[in-house]
Records
---
Amino acid sequence: MKNIVDSVGVGETLQDREHFHLRVIATDADVSAYIKYVDQLPQLFSQLEFAVEEELTPYNLLHNFGSRYVLAIGYHDLLGAAMLSVVHTYSCIYGEVGDVIVKPHHRHRGIGRSLMMEACRLAWLQKCTEVRLEVHPNLVAANQFYPSIGFKLTGTQTGLYGRNNYKCFPS
């Protein structure tokens, strides 16, 4: 399979045979323009197997954490979403993919791959040196998916919230 980083062109329109399109939600104007879909995000993300119980709305994530959302929209329905935060440290700038989810009946159609391609493209445009993500070891499908699109397993955290750590670098 082609590495995700090698297959993303800046400014490229991402669509596939399933007739969905991607929208980036990064500003208040984006939230207003796509409010119908943004309002569905908390419910969509609550379906994650290891969802956080906190009340994190798209609005406060956008403003407090600098998150961007990539939405997969098909025929007036939210099919999936990914959340990207850009982290600035003294030594580097990196992207952190917080959550990716595709509704169960829309999986295995390229939507997750397209969401991740766009999240990585956004990170590279923000001058990130890498994109990071964490996956619970029990999520077998996710732990197979990320390496298939070019992410490398870089370690496993131990302790109560043990996670597999993955990174992807621009080519």
---
Amino acid sequence: MFEKSLDTAARALLVVASILAFLLSFVVVADVIGRVGFNSPLKGTPELVSSTIVIVCYLMASYAILTGGMLRVDAIMDRLPVFGRGLLDIFGSCLGILLFAIIIVGTWEGFWHAWDSGEYEGEGALRVPMWPVRLAVLVGSTLSLLCYVVLIKRQVLALRQGSVISTGVSH
């Protein structure tokens, strides 16, 4: 039940991130047309792009983990016995948990500061609030950490049966 809910949440965040990336492409095209054609770029484009890219990356992370889309060196992994591959997969997942735990701890205070102070990026015509960016980092990192926990569980179960899983929980 938990794994299914996690998979559903990861897929929903993937859809949201994809829509944001799609909409961002229109902003970039409008900026380029304005800059080249009319010598008047779209105001606030750098702020929107930098904020949206961070949001998109963190919202997509959990789906990438669940579908086995994270990087790994198959040239090394394929040469190891099943037990060695399983252990390296578990070790890699433990490092993923550590990474996202550090990101969560490092972002927590910054999120509340951005929320309380109304922190923004940009000056003049467009001021982009930072709390949505920091919230996306927190949500994406928390889900990614949970995905690695689920992955470790599945990797340990597979290793006990003498096999390894090549992808995450979605396949």
